[in-house]
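Appendix B. Raw example, untouched.
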Amino acid sequence: QAVIALLLAPWYLQERLLVSSGYGGTTGGFDPGVLFTDIVPTLIFGETLTPSFQIIGWLVIIALPLSLILMWRQKQSSAILLGLLTVMPIILLSIAATRLNIFTARYVLVSAPAMMILLTGMVITLWRQGGRDRAWRVVSLGLFVGLLGGSLTSLSNYQTQIDYAKSPDWRALVAYLGVQMHPDDLVVQAAADEAFTFYFAEYDLPGDHIRLPANPTHSRAEIAAILAERLTAHHSIWRVAQTFSDWPSAGIVEDWLADHAQLVRSTEVNAIPVRQYMPLAARSDEISTEPLAVFGDLVELVGVHVPPTPDPSGDLPVRLYWQPLRTADRSYKIFLHLIGAPDAATGSPLWSQDDQFPQDGRVDTQSWQNGEVVRDVYSLPIADVPAGRYDLVVGFYDPATLERLRVIAPTDGLVEGDSFTIQPIALP
């Protein structure tokens, strides 16, 4: 196998294949430190070994050359074969990784069996040596316990810890997006995982999707240019999943969106982070042609968005659109309430609420601009609300006096109370 690998190596190392193929890889480039801290421990214990147990990986790295020496003393041909199977794939990977971002254990899995045979042989040889000196049996037992303990820890993490799942639950994510997405939305997948592309197509999701960052060395300038163009072209941007923390390009997408767009939704789908962003300025297709309600002579409600289902977190995200008619002499607060039949325990019809100043305090009714539409985001906790029919109501009040603004019908100017019913909500 080593000879075959050497014969094929020149083909795989051609400039045309490495540079002009269009594939840049999705991990890191060559890094000698990664070989010892990640690749060799992963080949022995898998990629789910808890970081606190990485010391076991270093012990294995020390044990490998010693096991090769012991094998050489017993059978030189076996030592040569196992040595080549262990070392040659890693050498070839290291050479290729100087051109591509592929320096990760999954490309040299062929080395794993050879490593395990060498280490197992070392355990057996040292145990047999213990017949003359029991100290060798202690060393053998320690090595065996280390190998077994690391493997069991890794297996336990894989089976029980969501952080170590083999892959994100893309099916659950695309099922959620299929219900929530606008046909002109864009999904920015941050994990550079082609499996998401497959499920996106399989579920025939509306909108478009891209991988960003596309690789570890994706530049900040290029990412910013792509996002600026896409934010203008699409109704909203959904950023899903998480970039590998050791990528130099990690965090660039999140930072740019935080500075240039408005976060309108934040949730998780089976531990996959999901964030929805919209342009800072509301577009005409987000608002109604006629106001839905007028609060005093201060502001008009010109748009509402209530999603078809709550988020997995149990919250109901609601977007309200305000168009100021004038500035006020005080800072008014907005209440969004879920009203239903009185709670038997409290006697109150209020089941959930989100009270806040416009845009959570970033906009003030004393200084907002007349005629400029304000997109306002609310989140109603409804996980503990029992099934039934409720009304979603909104209004303005003075937090100092709790006095509410009157609601005026936009058609005839008649006062309709001190709150406006947005729509009924049926909770299953």
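End of appendix B.
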